[in-house]
Every structure is written in C-alpha cells, then in structure tokens.
C-alpha cells in the first residue's frame, strides 16, 4: 500500500502542543549536555586518557538521544492522536475504513516510538482514501 508523505502541518501544529514541563525538562537536559561537552573539551585540553574521554562522549550521546526521544515521542503521539480523531469524525460509520480506524484507535495507547511514524502514515492514507471516495460520490 503506497502512502503519502506526512503533511508539514503535522509538525507545525506540534510546536503549540508541547507542554511547558516537557519543554523545561528538555532544556534542562540540553544544559546538562552542554556542561558535559564543555567537560570533554577540558579533558582534551588536559590530555586526559582517551578511554575516559570516550566514556564522556558516550554519556553525552545517550543524554542527547534521550532528550530527542522525549521530544519526538510527544510530538508524534499528539500528531497521531489529532489525525486519528479527525479521521474518526470524517467516518460516519459506513466509510469502508471503520475496522482499520477502530484497530488504530485500540492500538494507539500501546504504540512505541518506532511505530508512531508508520501509524501516522497509515491513518493519513485512510483519511486520504476516505476523502477521495467522498469526492467520487
């Protein structure tokens, strides 16, 4: 099944959806990472053991990955919820996609980060197909 790319609007709207506590948490994490990077620079300036430097690189990389995950998970999850809601409203119960929509609705709470993008594309394809069918009739 070929799907359309996600509209930019998904990600533009998400800017307004970030909770203040999430923003604060991510900024705190980034400030910690900044401190770790400054520490790595000092370690390099002081000719510290490369193994010690590598440990700090790994710690900073893991911290950055965690901050990125928090942002993307929140953004994608809210985008999927909004599109799922819009699609459910557009399907009056006889749109031919009710089983797919209901399955996605049931799966939604348990989706992990890696599944969110695929499910966003899937619900977008369902929505596009419903709209195309509505225009034909």
TrEMBL record:
InterPro entries: Metal_Tscrpt_repr, Metal_Tscrpt_repr_sf. Keywords: DNA-binding. One of its GO terms (molecular function) is metal ion binding. It holds the Pfam family Trns_repr_metal. GO terms for biological process: negative regulation of DNA-templated transcription. Belongs to the FrmR/RcnR family. This is DNA-binding transcriptional regulator, FrmR family. It comes from Pontibacter ummariensis.
């Amino acid at each position: 099944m070929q799907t359309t790319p996600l509209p930019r609007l998904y990600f533009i709207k998400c800017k307004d959806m970030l909770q203040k506590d999430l923003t604060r948490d991510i900024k705190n994490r980034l400030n910690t990472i900044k401190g770790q990077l400054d520490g790595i620079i000092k370690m390099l300036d002081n000719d510290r053991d490369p193994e010690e430097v590598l440990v700090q690189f790994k710690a900073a990389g893991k911290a950055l990955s965690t901050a990125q995950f928090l942002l993307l998970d929140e953004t994608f999850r809210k985008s999927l919820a909004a599109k799922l809601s819009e699609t459910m409203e557009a399907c009056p119960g006889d749109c031919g996609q009710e089983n797919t929509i209901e399955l996605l609705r049931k799966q939604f709470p348990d989706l992990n980060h890696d599944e969110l993008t695929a499910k966003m594309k899937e619900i977008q394809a369902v929505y596009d197909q419903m709209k195309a069918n509505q225009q034909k009739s």
